[in-house]
Amino acid sequence: MFKDMRARFCKTDSAIYFSHLDLNRAVMRALRRSGIPFWSKGGFSPHPYCVFAQPLSLGYESEGELFDFRVTGEFDPEALKAAFPDSMKILEIYEPRDHFKQLAWADYRIELKTAVDAEAVQKAFEEPLTVLKKTKRSEAEVDIREFIRSLAAEPGGEGVILHATLAAGSQRSLSPNYLAEGLSNAGIPAEIRRVRRLGFLREDGEFFR
Amino acid sequence: MTYNLDDMRDLLLQVQKPARYVGGEIGQTVKDLCEVDVRVAFCFPDIYDIGMSHLGLRLLYGVLNEQKGTWCERAFQPWTDMEEKMREEGIKLYTMESHTSLDEFDLVAFTLQYEMCYPTVLNMLELGGLPLYAKDRTGLKNIVVGGGPCAYNPEPLAPFFDIFSIGEGEEAWPELTDKLREARVKGWSREEFLFEVSKMEGFYVPSLYDVTYKEDGTIGSFAPNREGVPAVVRKRIIRDFDQVYYPKTQMIPFTEAVHDRVTIELFRGCIRGCRFCQAGMLFRPIRCKSADTLVKDACTLLENTGYEQLSLCSLSSSDYPEIEKLVDELIRYTEPRGINLSLPSLRVDNFSKELAAKITGVKKSTFTFAPEAGSQRMRDVINKNVTEEDIERSCRIAFENGNSSVKLYFMMGLPTETDEDLDAIHSMADKIIGYFYDTDKQKRNRFIHIAISLATFIPKPFTPFQWEAQNSEEEVHRKQNYLYGKVAKKQVSLSHHDCRTSMIEAILARGDRRLAPVLEAVSKSGSKLDAWTEHFNYERWQQAFKAAGVDGNFYSLRKRDYDEILPWDFIDIGVTKDYLKKEALRAYAAETTRNCKEGCTGCGANAMLGRKCDV
């Protein structure tokens, strides 16, 4: 009846100011506008089926956002690409291999404003870095290192640039904001200046596709 | 000053809904500055969410950007959190497209939709880095132009504006930008340019007119102060409305606008002639688009935008001559695509069962009627030609279709109103509840809810009631309390509009140039976004009137003589003053006037068309 498709797109320039709700609406309208034979769930006001991998915080850039949609027949990927603004450029359209449930990690490039050098920042991650982590239901003291797969600090920007792979699954995830909080709690005052999500990984570290 | 979005990042991430301030929407126009010689900033004196819903903005934005060499951009009043940040950082009000401050533009255009936006207009000028008063602006740039319904009495804003565009803008605006080009070629000064503009049809240059006042405060004379400037300014209309420019696409806001949908405009003008209604007189003569044109427009727009909602726009949709055909053809397109069709502004007297079925087939919603007055006598006075039978019939149709929620709009403080007329508001609600319980149980819903909304009548220029006095605040409060005291049934709820806003609106609507210092004072004291209840501050207005030494009641509570010179008399809207006076006299006699479909009533507007109206 339909075929699952996945689109990878970026979120840059003015698009970083769109909320997840805005993004959802924009993608649905783009699907309609593109004229491709999208699949709808039906119901009273049928709208194009589309599911996002992970919401992105307002203000973050990305070059690895994903949404799934379904088509009921042959379609021209170029038509879909043409329906998106430059700030939400579609980079790739493909048939998914992995299910969103398998998504576990996300790669980030994080610019930190801090007076401390990269080496000291890197070293700070050898000791527990506790933050008060809030979830929908509760808040708890956690060591953020439990949510970090890898992290490398190098000098750059207004202080330090972190290349970090952080938990981004449906069960456990960590917002890059907690890195600054954790460092500050450990006596290294740091402020997040800019975050760019680069892509997603599976639990086994394979590139999510 | 042109701002870089990236430099404003920190600021933008500290405010609510930053998507309002960045532009970049699908459908916006960006031009290469090397190919642009006239830059227009189209300013909407309210926030983005409201402005982006406005059809007039889309039309003029489209028409100007179609013109070679013209680049029209958009600017909105920021929400207060953003404005505070901008003032802290010294950022001027900038446009959505190129993020350029208003003071860089050749033409700074304001659409004046509602009197309460006047302080916002002044705030935007100031935030945009422009001198407030026209006399302080120099050269052939920063020309501030006003248009829209409030431009039909532009006088309270006169000293702040260089030009007002009176009437429909699709043809007039490109002529104005061309005039600016001509001025540059011929080396005219700003004064010469404005003089030339004053001679163009539909343009009013307030600095070229002088007003004198009598001892009693009324106008003694109103005349041009330079030879060659016309004494009367005639509004512009589009004669061939079916073929007028209509955009092929629409800007699609990323953050949700209030009306976030495709809109098609069925016709301009109104056949009804309700005596309180300004739009009904201003937008005459009646001109329709053909159903074929409308269907074509709708499909093009839906395809190009991906919108899931289509709305029909006019003063009274069910009066559109080809309404059945139009709705049929639109539904044929929208239904299979899951697009929602909404049909606002229906009349209770010609609302057919078939039409109701068609619409409810798409989506069930609240049934909203505007009887405006409770008693038949009162409705005859205001010429709202709706009878009890009409209301009964429409409600029964609605209930049989499963509607269970009725919203009724009424006005209080209408000329000749008595407490008996107010009593009739309640008895109407009671009768409607009766119709509901009469309806076959199999068909109707289980519950009924009637929401009554009460507004305060505001006499407006260019209506038969333009000479009337508004009820005083005390009287309005008394009437409100009287009505609230009578709500007994649990199915009925009552709500009312803050009458203090209506008091100020009434003063501004029929004001003259002497109100300008009040506006300046109120804006300086921080007023803006006055249409938002949380921002309207009555005390500030009272202080501004006091500081400027102006008695607001002179404008709102005073009944005028028919021979008084009114501040807007120099504008010719097509409908004659004689006709308005005749209608006023009929109102006192509670005599109704037929609608234009039943026969021409001789208002005079069709003289602008040179043919019969499209009814």
Distance between the termini of chain A: 23 Å
The count of strands of chain A amounts to: 10
**Radius of gyration of chain A over all CA atoms, rounded:** 19 Å
pLDDT < 50 runs, ≥5 residues of chain B? none
How big a fraction of the residues of chain A is strand? Answer: 35-45%
Average pLDDT of chain A, rounded to a whole number, is 93
Helical content of chain B (DSSP H or I, runs of 4+): 25-40%
Order of helices and strands of chain A: EHEEHEEHEEEEHE
Average pLDDT level of chain B:
93
Global structural class of chain B = alpha/beta
Going by CATH, the architecture of the largest domain in chain A would be 2-Layer Sandwich
Provide the low-confidence segments of chain A as ranges: none
Oligomeric state: heterodimer
| Estimated radius of gyration of chain B | 24 Å
Shape of chain A: elongated
Give short descriptive properties of this protein:
heterodimer, A: 209 residues, alpha+beta, Alpha-Beta Plaits, 2 domains, 8-stranded mixed β-sheet, two-stranded antiparallel ribbon, B: 615 residues, alpha/beta, 6-stranded mixed β-sheet, 4-stranded parallel β-sheet, 34% helix, globular
Please, could you describe this protein's structure?
The complex is a heterodimer of chains A (about 210) and B (about 625). Chain A has 4 helices and 10 strands. By secondary structure, chain A is an alpha+beta fold. Chain A folds into 2 domains: about 5-95, Pseudouridine synthase I, catalytic domain, N-terminal subdomain (Alpha-Beta Plaits, 2-Layer Sandwich); about 100-200, Alpha-Beta Plaits (2-Layer Sandwich), CATH 3.30.70.3190. In chain A, the strands form 2 sheets. In chain A, strands 1, 2, 3, 4, 5, 8, 9 and 10 form an 8-stranded mixed beta sheet that branches. A two-stranded antiparallel ribbon of chain A has the order 6-7. Chain B is built from 20 helices and 19 strands. In chain B, the strands form 6 sheets. Chain B has a 6-stranded mixed beta sheet with strand order 2-1-3-4-5-6, covered by helices on one side. The radius of gyration of chain B is 24 Å and the shape is globular. Chains A and B meet through α1 of A and α9 of B.
